[in-house]
Structures are given as structure tokens and as C-alpha cells.
Amino acid sequence: MKQTETLAKLACAYSGVVWGLFWIPLRALDGSGVTGAWATVLFYLVPAVLFLPIALWRWRALLAGGWGLQLTGLVTGTAVVLYADGLVYTEVIRAMLLYYMTPVWSTLLARLILKEPITAVRWLAIALGFSGMLVIFGIDVGAPLPRNVGDWMALAGGFCWAIAAVRMRGDTKSSAIEFTSLHFLLGAPVAVLIALLPLAGAHELPDAATAAAVLPWLVPTLVIVVVTGSFAAMWGASRLNPGIVGILFMTEISVGTATAAIWAGEPFGAREIVGVALITAAGLAESALDLLKWWRGRR
């Protein structure tokens, strides 16, 4: 059981790393003419096409899961689509701060719905994670209260993911392959719907030639990075307390900060180092406690 739990934690941390790299292909798409919310659409449509044969192969399992499984897939897809589009319609800092209220929502929902206890180390991990975020982004940005449509998207995305994490944790019949398939198949139409909405700063639909031109590098990127990261998230989330899942996903902030410094020339000094250390400590807090208990038991 402990080995499975450790692997699940590593899977969620890996998923956070993947989403910390998310900005790189998004920026490349923007430079190639696939801008704004339409980049999110492409990010979902390509994996949806790839997962369609898998869904047809697993149709019995998808049907056996009933409407509850379909709802979980819709919520996971909606969560990440809202977050990705939130990055388009508001400042990146504000989107991250609002989305990563997720550990709080997840912890509270897991307590209310799954009756899972909230431990002192869990609250400590949440405090460390949020402290790290505020250090990296600077407390001078003010309280992260929603001010525009992008802010609300990021906040809603985080809450949707918390709901999805609780649902996956409570679903003992479905597997990660079903969750991942529905994540893309049901997330794709949500991405299209949002891209078609007359939102402020909306972007034009790219032409077919522009979209086709990016596929040679986008498809392998999505398969190797995004699909594996999504599968890891679904597999890990179905085996862990939703609160710790949200905390482990905070690795995205550390990776995003470091990679932006390396490849985008953004600042990475003492403040960023302290913030990354705090977020890393948040992700390791419960595992460190388990290791301490094991060591004491060996004495």
C-alpha cells in the first residue's frame, strides 16, 4: 500500500512538472499563429483524436462507469481548459494564484464527502505551499481576488479540479485510462465552446494551413509530454487524498518559474529560490513524516 502511495505521489509530482512546462508549447503556438484560446483547443483536439480508438476499444468500461464516470471526465477536462484559458485572459501570476487554491478546496471537499481526516501536517503543507507562491509572485501583487473573466476562469478551474480529484478518489471501479480518455474527449468541446464565446480579447480562428503547419512538432509533444502528464495525474489522483494531490501539483509553479528564467529570461534570484524551496517542502512534508515514522519503527 505504501509503495503504491509513493508511486502515486511521484506521478502527481511528475504531472505538476509537465504543466510547469505548459507555457513553452503554448508560446510556440502563439508565435506560429495559433493564438489564445484556440491554442487550448488544439491541445485538446489532437489528443481527443488519438484517444478515440482507445475509447471505442474500452467502450464497455466507459459504459459500466455510468453517468458518474462521464461527469468526472467532463469536470477534469473543464478544469484544465479553464486554467489554460485563464492564462490567456488574465495575468499569469493571478491565474496561478487563483487556480492553486485547489489544495484548500480539495482538502475541505475530501473531509465533507469522503470523510478523510485533515491532519496537522496537511495544513502545514498547504501553508508552506501558499507561502512559497506568495514569495515567488510577490505579496505586492495584492490579494488574489477575481477581477476579470480570466481570473474567474482560473478560480473556477481550480475548484473544478478539486471536485474531480474527490470524484476520482471515490471511484473504485474506473481506471486511469478511462479518466484520461474522457478528460480529452469531453474537454475538447468545452475548449471549443470557450474559444467561440465573445470574450474580451478573444482571438480569431486560425486557418487550416496554420494549424496543420504546427502538427509535426505539436503531436509528438502532446503524446510524450501532455498525454503522459495527464495520465499520471489521473492515476495518482485516484489513489491519494485530494488535498495532497493539489499540494503535489504545486511543483508546476517551481518548474514554471525555473524554466521561464532559463528560456524566457525571467528573473530567478533569492526570492524565487526561497519560494521553490518552500513549495518543494510542501510536496515532501507528508512523505517526510512517513519516513520518520518508518525510521522510528526500525529503532
What features would you describe in this structure?
This protein has 299 residues and is mainly α. It has one domain. The protein is 80% helix and 0% strand. The protein is built from 14 helices and no strands. Helix 1 packs antiparallel against helix 11 (208-237), helix 5 (66-89) packs antiparallel against helix 9 (149-170) and helix 7 (102-113) packs parallel to helix 9 (149-170). The two termini are 22 Å apart. The mean pLDDT is 86.
What's the end-to-end separation, in Å? Answer: 22 Å
C-alpha geometry = globular
The total of helices stands at: 14
Order of helices and strands: HHHHHHHHHHHHHH
Helix content: over 70%
- Mean of the pLDDT scores? 86
* Low-pLDDT ranges: none
Tell me the number of strands: 0
Radius of gyration: 19 Å
Sheet-strand content, in percent, reads: under 5%
Count of discrete domains:
1
Helix/strand/pairing class, anyone? mainly alpha
- Largest sheet data: none
Features:
mainly alpha; 80% helix; globular; single chain; 299 residues; 0% strand; 14 helices
Summary, kept brief:
The protein has helices at 2-20, 23-31, 37-57, 59-64, 66-89, 92-99, 102-113, 120-137, 149-170, 176-196, 208-237, 242-248, 251-263, 270-298. By secondary structure, it is mostly helical.
